[in-house]
Amino acid sequence: MSEALANLLSETRQFPPPAELAAHANVTIDAYAEAEGDRLAFWAKQADRLAWSKKWDEVLDWSNPPFAKWFVGGQLNVAYNCLDRHVEAGRGDKVAIHWEGEPGDTRTITYADLHELTCRAANALTDLGVTAGDRVAIYLPMIPEAAVAMLACARIGAAHSVVFGGFSADSLSNRIQDASAKVVITADGGYRRGKPSALKPTVDEAVANCPSVDHVLVVRRTGEEVAWSEKDLWWHETVETASAEHTAQPFDAEHPLFILYTSGTTARPKGILHTTGGYLTQASYTANAVFDLKPETDVYWCTADIGWVTGHSYIVYGPLSNGVTQVMYEGTPDTPHKGRFWDIVEKYRVSILYTAPTLIRTMMKWGEDIPAGHDLSSLRLLGSVGEPINPEAWMWYREHIGGGALPVVDTWWQTETGAIMISPLPGVTAAKPGSAMTPLPGIVADVVDDQGQSVPNGGGGYLVLREPWPSMLRTIWGDDERFIDTYWSRFEGMYFAGDGAKKDDDGHIWLLGRVDDVMLVSGHNISTTEVESALVSHPSVAEAAVVGATDPTTGQAIVAFAIPRGSTDITGDAGEQLIADLRNHVSKTLGPIAKPRQIMLVPELPKTRSGKIMRRLLRDVAENRSLGDVTTLQDSSVMDLISSGMTGAK
Ligand code: 6R9
């Protein structure tokens, strides 16, 4: 591997769990040995944490790989597991969701309330002709009805397909058509950046091309005027008037639970299919193990959007199946001011926070004074997901949000894996800043070379999963061939995740970003993540994105985009000086081979709504091409901002 490897691996700081947390942790070190001893028995034990109407006959049927069947013959209802059993156990009055609207309006929803709403929605959907096996598209803002809609589908055995509220009419239409959804659940709009942001017009445009859709159910959120067609029904007139009595029917463990389209930063979106028993087993177990959820005392907050897999597994199914109290927030982190997140933590006494590196770096950019002005003493555990977290951002998170004492769990997983796969256990692992550390108990991950051979400690290559896991995707909706080609053909008998990774000298795993993003500079493989981390480790840089641009001499050349931190002066010569400093800083940190050819200081970076940097668009800028498809961008004006606000462009 390149010299860069040695440098990244020189990150030796390590933070053991706080003694108090370790002493009372839900999961101890024994879990690893137990799962290693008998992996299937281990997962059967985790499945037993759920309520089954009929016990399974076989834990795993892997007779026709890569098509797995978990908990064969078992039957259960997912909504029953998330709601009814808590209510039946006398915990109906416990708060399930503290909901906070962006304008400051709030709702407190107990498990009994959520159960009632879900039963009404299940009855309403049934009345609209939705039956088990049908598909329902959900296009909603972050309001409680989003969780209700998902749970109601699960309750009646209809697969939901949640589409990000930020997607265009075309993207929505394609996804509705691909799944032949019968009903679309949406809202007039939601609040974003201090004002109503309409959704219904996009749905109207999308549905015009979707003959499969019989009805559109519309939640009234903003009260803004909407166009109305004969397919449209108001949620408050349909769902809220439906009966609150509903008995959940059990479904087969392999009954489809949901389809979720991957963000598709490159190719045609893939409809990732998840099923019932295995998915809920692993979503529920990992929420309990990785976040150490204590339903009696914890207030958990995952800041993801429900339209992202993180929202599915760690807002809806994981936390609710564990019966914990959580916070759900509708809006953006800087509305009405940059301390909004910390207001929320303080107000609800949040104890567990799960967010994304992009947000942490944004908070770094805004400066530590903002969190410092808040009482964050309720926090006891911090999590990260979505991208590699740079060591610098990890340290900032621990230091300025975690008071220098809290464990940070960096959790690696994908829409396809359904649940967390590689992560520290907060009561066990001495975590290293920037490393996802080790596969969770019951998960067999590895890093392999081009030939599929396991690399030794200190080596780098491709991340693979060697054994099936309960919450694995079952296929790509309607396209088994593509499922096999994309994930199971690169290496014989292994799941190919598409991420680059390294093992350090202790065998701990470091994720290096998508393999498509690895650059080849003068014959050296250099990962975008490493150069980005080197840039972010400079005191003047808050965020960075690195791409490989075609170069006549070196094959590819490193082009970096950096957002300066808070008050950094970049006017005139100061900007040029900073660029020169940064190039030298990278060269010193990673070696001369990693020195960027060009660095541009920019006010923003293009990101998907789930917070991933869209390097494809930056490559267009770096190679002076006209921009490709920008429809999945969180904010499409960012690209104009970048082009007009660039310092250092040649
Ligand atoms: C959960 C989610 C999956 C891709 C994945 C990887 C990146 C996610 C990460 C991480 C490094 C982490 N990713 N978590 N990379 N460290 N802790 O994000 O799902 O939207 O499908 O994205 O995200 O590249 O392959 P999804």
Automatic annotation (TrEMBL):
Role of this protein: Catalyzes the conversion of acetate into acetyl-CoA (AcCoA), an essential intermediate at the junction of anabolic and catabolic pathways. AcsA undergoes a two-step reaction. In the first half reaction, AcsA combines acetate with ATP to form acetyl-adenylate (AcAMP) intermediate. In the second half reaction, it can then transfer the acetyl group from AcAMP to the sulfhydryl group of CoA, forming the product AcCoA.
InterPro entries cross-referenced by the UniProt entry: Ac_CoA_lig (IPR011904), ACAS_N (IPR032387), AMP-bd_C (IPR025110), AMP-bd_C_sf (IPR045851), AMP-dep_synth/lig_dom (IPR000873), ANL_N_sf (IPR042099)
Record-level GO BP terms: acetyl-CoA biosynthetic process from acetate
Keyword Transmembrane helix set for record: no
Transmembrane regions listed in the UniProt entry: none
GO CC annotation, single: cytosol
Binding site for CoA: R192, R193, G194, K195, T310, S522
Cofactor: Mg(2+)
Protein's name in the database: Acetyl-coenzyme A synthetase
Species name: Micromonospora parathelypteridis
Enzyme Commission code(s) on record: 6.2.1.1
